Amino acid sequence: MLNSEQAEPLYIQLKKAVQSAIANGTFNPGDKIPTEIELSANYNVSRITVRKAIEELVSEGYLTKRQGKGTFVNAHKIGRKIEHIISFTAACRANGLSSHSAITERKKIKADQETAERLQIQQGEPVLYIQRKRYAGERPLMLENNYYPFERFSFLMEESLEGSVYELLRDRYQIDPNQPGETVLQITLADEQQAKLLEIPIGQPLFYMNTIIYDQHSQPVHVGKQYIIGDRYQFTL
Question: Which band of pLDDT confidence, cut at 50, 70 and 90, is reported for residue 132?
Fold first, then answer.
């Protein structure tokens, strides 16, 4: 129960109580939380206090208000710093979530001019294209499209790639993808194929991240073109 004698304002205490209920699974992603009237009665506080707590939780991304339907718990967002090299697996782990991957495409293709220039190879040379659907918990979160110089990374044709490729490269092949090159982050809308693979509606906002990653010797590892569900991921600078 909230304590009016504490120095901490009641709306902050209520806010923390709702955050705790989300963290411990009392309220799960997608759940509708009690109404203002119900929360006011449950915690013995005014509706003004409830409204202020809920407004802050909405602004911080914990909750979403839906007109005429109520207030709902948002899916947990995965956070990472855009300027740091951290694998998807490590980002999920840091945010308390399990992760796994499913390969949707893996094939040798010819490098177009842009990819060839970024990988420091000749146009038309073979590259290894790997598309994976990345899961955070049990839900797909990212559609990963990576392009590797085939001559150097052909061994990835035989790997399962269910977990972190970066960890695999470091642990088994002594290749450390630790240097980001130019990275462009944009907002796009899911097309039909992306929506089907990510199990979302067509037109849902996605982060599109286009990047190049280098190893410890400043050699290109891969060009990455990633599509990430926007309302479940956040970048910080």
Answer: very high
Residue among 182, 224, 185, 183 at smallest CA distance from 205: 185
Would you give the distance in Å from CA 33 to the centre of its chain? 24
Over residues 52-94, the pLDDT tens digits come to 999 988 877 788 888 889 999 987 666 555 555 567 877 777 7
Q: What are the structural domains, with CATH classification, of the chain? A: 10-73 (1.10.10.10), 78-236 (3.40.1410.10)
How far apart CA 2 and CA 205 sit, in angstroms, is 38
Reading the block at residue 2, the tokens are 């909230």
Stretch (H or E) spanning 89? helix 88-94
- Tell which residue, 186, 183, 188, 185, has the closest CA to residue 211: 183
Sequence-ordered strand ranges (E) for 18-124: 63-66, 70-73, 78-81, 99-110
In this structure, what token pair is assigned to residue 39? 């929360």
Contact 61, 71 (CB under 8 A): no
Dist. CA 192–CA 94, nearest whole Å:
31
User: What element of type H or E holds 11?
Assistant: helix 10-23
- Residue 32 pLDDT more than 90? yes
Candidates 121, 179, 168; CA nearest to 147 is: 121
Tokens representing residue 223 in the block: 């060009």
Bridging pattern class, strands 78-81 and 233-236: parallel
Q: 30 to each of 47, 195, 229, how far by Cα in Å?
A: 23, 19, 16
Q: Are 122 and 150 in contact (CB under 8 A)?
A: no
Task: Specify whether the CB–CB gap between 43 and 2 falls below 8 A.
Answer: yes
DSSP string, 176-219: ---EEEEEEEEEEE--HHHHHHHT--TT-EEEEEEEEEE-TTS-
